[in-house]
Design goal:
Pathway: Porphyrin-containing compound metabolism; siroheme biosynthesis; precorrin-2 from uroporphyrinogen III: step 1/1; Cofactor biosynthesis; adenosylcobalamin biosynthesis; precorrin-2 from uroporphyrinogen III: step 1/1. It comes from Govanella unica. With 285 residues, this protein is α/β, with parallel strands linked by helices. It has 2 domains: 112 residues, 3-Layer(aba) Sandwich (Cobalt-precorrin-4 Transmethylase, domain 1); 149 residues, Tetrapyrrole methylase, C-terminal domain (Methyltransferase, Cobalt-precorrin-4 Transmethylase, Domain 2). Helices cover 31% and strands 17% of the residues. The strands form 2 sheets. It has a 5-stranded parallel beta sheet, with helices on both faces. Helix 3 crosses helix 4 and helix 6 packs across helix 7. The longest helix has 13 residues.
């Protein structure tokens, strides 16, 4: 199939021209969460340079003649350097190939897409950025946890649990963030979860505050474990939560009892209409 195939809703979408690089988000894992722009790129690319979080079901959507080049970074394992990846993108483009750089989630949300785009600018390579559904939004939705809800929170903070130096990010004041009281969604949460929790507690967050760990979000292997801030470190180890995993901290986690559509569909979970008891409070007024 081609981008002009009448069976696909791609006829009026842009062409991936030779010598161009498209930096695309593949979403959190479920192939159904791809955007049409990214699917369009997969159907046209000569080379697909993909990350570790891009699953085989998504790669099967590439055109059969496409070269698939792995460029994944996984902690503690041999990985190509960022310079190697950027150099490969430039070299493919200069060779006249149509290049799709495929990254999990959104390429500009903890995805180094900005670094790669700047390398392309420096090399004079034209590019397009195709946003994707971030795991911080799509992964939460599949876990039955809204990022915001009028009953619990009007703000949410997304942060990385893994910094450029290998530890927690140095540019985040976790104590101040804890004191803000905002809902927290922590990407790459497991590597330094004990230190992360310690700093949040030191900042005044309650040990009883609801927490959820989401592993392999949106995939058939998805796991969601609910806990509290004081108990989550031990539970994560006991439950054997696998990476990639996110941690959600805040009262909004309690809404999962009503919104876990995925658990209801695949595990027969019974949903509760009013998990916060808000209706009872209204009736009492």
């Amino acid at each position: 199939m081609t981008a002009e195939d009448p069976e696909l809703p791609l006829a009026n979408l842009p062409r991936l021209e030779p010598g161009w690089v498209w930096l695309a988000g593949a979403g959190p894992g479920d192939p159904g969460l791809l955007t049409l722009h990214t699917l369009n790129g997969l159907r046209q690319a000569d080379v697909v340079v993909y990350d570790a979080l891009v699953g085989p079901e998504i790669l099967t959507l590439a055109r059969p003649q496409a070269q698939l080049q792995f460029a994944g970074k996984r902690g503690g394992k041999p990985s190509p350097t960022q310079r190697d990846i950027s150099t490969a993108l430039v070299e493919h483009a200069r060779a006249g190939r149509r290049v799709l750089r495929l990254k999990g989630g959104d390429p500009l949300v903890f995805g180094r897409g900005g670094e790669e785009a700047r390398a392309l600018v420096a090399a004079g390579v034209p590019f397009r950025i195709l946003p994707g559904i971030s795991a911080g939004v799509g992964g939460l939705a599949y876990a039955g946890i809204p990022a915001t809800d009028r009953q619990t929170n009007s703000a949410v903070t997304f942060l990385s649990g893994y910094g450029a130096g290998g530890g927690l990010p140095a540019d985040i004041d976790l104590v101040a963030l804890a004191q803000s009281g905002t809902t927290l969604v922590v990407f790459m949460a497991l590597s330094h979860i004990a230190e992360l929790v310690e700093r949040l507690l030191a900042g005044g967050r309650s040990a009883a505050e609801p927490v959820a760990l989401i592993s392999n979000a949106t995939l058939p292997t998805q796991r969601v474990v609910e806990s509290t801030l004081g108990a989550v470190v031990g539970l994560a180890a006991e439950a054997g939560i696998a990476t990639p995993a996110m941690m959600v901290v805040g009262e909004v986690v309690r809404l999962r009892a009503a919104l876990d559509w995925y658990g209801a569909l695949h595990e027969g979970r019974t949903l509760v209409a009013d998990p916060l008891g808000m209706q009872a409070r209204k009736d009492a007024i």
